[in-house]
Amino acid sequence: MDNQDGFKQSYHCIPFSKSKNSELEVGDKILMPVSALQELLNKETQHPWLFQIKKHYNAGQVSHCGVLEFTADEGSIVVPDWMMENLNLQQGELVMVESALLPAGKYMKLQPHSTRFIQLSNPKAVLGKNLSNFSCLSTGDTIMITHNDEKFFINILETKPGPAICLIGTDCEADFSPPLDYKQHEKPEKVEQNAGSQVQKKEIAEQPVFRPFTGKGRSSALGSNSVEKTPKSSSIGDLFQNMSFNGGLFQIFSWLSGKDICKYSSVCKSSNELLMEEFFINKQFRNMQLMDDTGFLIQYWLHGVEFHASSSNSTQECLVPTESMEFLRSTGWRVVASSNGLLCLKNMGDTRNPLFLFNPTTKTLLKIPLADNFEMKDLNNIVFDCNGDEYLLMVLKSPSDWNGDFHSIFYSPKEQIWKDGHNINLGERGIIFENSIYQNDVVYMISEWGHPFGWPYIVAYNIKKGVSKFLKIPITARKGLQQDNKNCKLKIFKNGNSANLFKSIILVKYYKLVFTMWLLIDLEEGTWSQIFKMRTKAMGLTLTNKLHVAGFTIQNGNIVLVATQDKVYRYNCIQDNCEELCNHGCKDSVGYQYLYGDCVRFHSFISTLRPCGPGAKKIVKS
Questions:
Q1: pLDDT given at position 120
Q2: How far is CA 289 from the centre of its chain?
Q3: pTM of the complete model beyond 0.90
Q4: Which of 339, 375, 500, 506 is an S-S bond match for 386, by CB 3.0 to 4.6 Å?
């Protein structure tokens, strides 16, 4: 369904193969100019951002796509080559791009061009991995997927419930037609039965025979669906027929939370076997990177930690095992950061082994050795993120001179050693390291505020290039930072999870019972756009001088979690609704005032099977 009142613009199209982003050709996502982002925000276009694309003149075939980045030159878009071919487009030709509202996909029928695809060792996994790069599919398209530098083309014969469907967060069944180059084998003539003919018959019987696909499949973005068990066979046809059944449980369980998988493993032998497979574990935590965090933990300054669900419809018991809760509540542990199911912990009472990684779901703990030149004060400057195949664990070593630079040191999970980084100029102000975030190879750190001279700033440190950039905060965010700094809070957060099409950061200011948010539009230019401003009363939070904000965070890019003296509230910026989530036990901490920190600290959380790394041990016996 096309959104006629939404985004609509004409662009000149450029294929990925002719651009500097040729490696992004797989998938259906395009590159658009930054002006498109500004218009989408101004029109408050509904997420996910999907588009219909067609020729500007003499439109025939229509396709649909998502957007990957807003880095294209003004007046042009960069399009996958297979989409250019489907639409019969020439480089530089004018196309019309319109926002589209597509129904959630329920069914698709696919046809590979070559039998070579179904001869792969695990074609189902290859298809699922590639379809994770697609946000939608259109009937009549021929998409391209890759495996080991080999290209495969697949026809989209049918989609339901409409001619174009959205694949994001959907349960989608898949049927397959025989490949285009498949040829039915002729039945061999009957011969006399003797030793030679018996061998010949056996050889003929073992030749691959294609049987139409009858089972139920699952696309990449997908949840559970029904499957039909089929008889075992060594033929290519049966392999293609059975790959839905053989991979069905794998695919379904890989989209469940780690806690749910562990729960089912106690009653289901098949799910217990999956917990032993490294490939499944990697698949599960990668899938969870595309999902919104479903819970959070809060930690008080006066020792204590609690886990809660992010929705009133969920329960705390679904988050972490009891043994993990008891372990975290033991004396001395502080949660530095939480990312993709792993917690970075430090124990300041243990100078020999103060740093650990912990997965509360699997109850595994990994001791991180310290570098020889570490000092305990350096462990206050930790940045941790594991929304990639390898996690980032960085320590910024404090300068020996008062006016010197910090120095970055990175921990290598594979080699289990610390590696030297770069000197970093963090400016003249103190940095609030506990609010550091990592996005697109850049670590963002916000400075302290309240000084009479100069305004606070954000340091953007590119860990690959070893360079840092200073970002000015928006002019409209400066009010109150110098005159009333004790009652003003500034924080930075990610703009959603790894699946978010526009990966950036959000600056949030809380001042005089008002929340205001700005989105970083362009890192190089340092441009911001205000995206939200609302009083707490309008949000559904009735706060007075006696009932104040003890802490807040932004979860999944659009959820504001606010802690008062004894309660936690959840406000959805998109749906504009507020609900009381739970009580918390931080009353003894709320009376303390911290200039740059919160009395109640939030850490977003999702349950995954992500390994801590080699050498991790169980905290309790199974």
A1: 81
A2: 4
A3: no
A4: 339
